[in-house]
Design goal:
The chain is an all-alpha fold. 72% of the residues lie in helices and 0% in strands. It is built from 27 helices and no strands. The relative contact order is 0.03.
Length: 475
Amino acid sequence: MNNNKIIPFHPDGDFHFKQGMKKIEQNKKTEALLSFEKAYELEQTNLSFMAQYAYLLAEKGQVTRGEQIIIEQFIQHQYDAEFYFIFSQLYMIIGDANKSFLFGMKYASEFPEEKYEEELEEMFEIDTDETDDITEEADLFVTSHLFQFLFMNARIEDALDLLNAAPLYIQETKEFRNLKAMALLFLNRYEEAHVLLERLLQEDKTDMHALSHMTLLYYHTDEKAQYEMSLSKLEVVQPMNDDDKFKIGIVLNFLKKYERSFELLYPLYKKNLFMSFQLLHALSQAAYHLDRVTESQEIWQKMQEFHPVSEVHSPWKRAEAEQSITDVEEKYFNDDDLFMRLIGIYRMSRVKPFEAIFGHPVWEAIENLGDLEKMYVSWLYKDVHFKRPEIMHHGMNVLYEHDYQADTYLYEWLLVVSVLYEAQVKPIDIEPYVAVCVYQVDTMASKKYVQELFGVSRYKFQKALETLSKINEES
């Protein structure tokens, strides 16, 4: 048989979708789910494939994943109003009549010619004579629900875009101005957030959402007097409803007021209210810092259902990272030798998660370091471009990745960079100089060995060695 005549079969999305529908008819829903998943992966722009996959996910208990898929495509399709019908069907499947009805009304208001409103009346046995009021309620609910979903899953830019695309009368409500201020705050757009929050508090001094966000803003902008004043109000206030408890609890958690945060958030968690990435992340942090470690780990695991996050960002791993930074500070930052302090900064930068340094007391020690150390820190953490720190860091990374991690090798590299800098030599490739560095320190390493190890030609290695020798002779 001539194998060249065999026509390969590459099943497309439609093939897998039809297979899934057959499995549904056979009541083999787990197998159907796999087929719908393949169909969706192959053709993500096909709304029929997406909807059927999301519906079955919801039916199988994976509601959050189903919502996530629909919202992803809702954004990709520029907030296409047809998606409101898909949302409505999803919530009907899981028995959430209120969400299903309100998303359905939103769809009906966008497509009156479909007469879907009449179907809703029949399905939910509701008289929609006061259509304007119900449509307004649907607008408010749908926008708020989608915003919260995006925001709580760290999609801040998308959440803000959604608000800006909402009808103008929605954007002008107190609730939605607060949501917008919150999004702007988390995007570091402090001036815009301040304008909104200041106006909200002028209108209503008891607005707990605005007070929470303003406290957070003062914290970020280092306005200490205003921050302390706002924080003192937040810590003693008794929230009147669950929504305020959630908001204040989240903010206090961010500000490391874990005990009060836990008091406010834990009852919501036990009542299964506001279940989201944001709530579970805050509770896991608070529980850990209150020595409820097992509970913290259980909550962290539950949080993964909403938004998977590496364990390196967990409160217990972050605590380990913060201790590592403290150890580096104590060992290196008080050394009289500049190069040892630079090695300390490098070792600190290798601590994971990288952002563990933010908010750490080590910044007080950094303020007392010299200009080159501060330049290196700015290059590392503030995205300020300096050539010398870049060469220092890249060379130490190369050494580290080739298991030359001892201070002796890192120190020799910093010495090489200093010599080149003083001689105003700007190397295009640093690997030859790193190879020379190891060759000079490691008495067991031959020229051939370091050339092969660092992928450096004999010519480039020899040229780097001669350049350094010449500089040393002239000095």
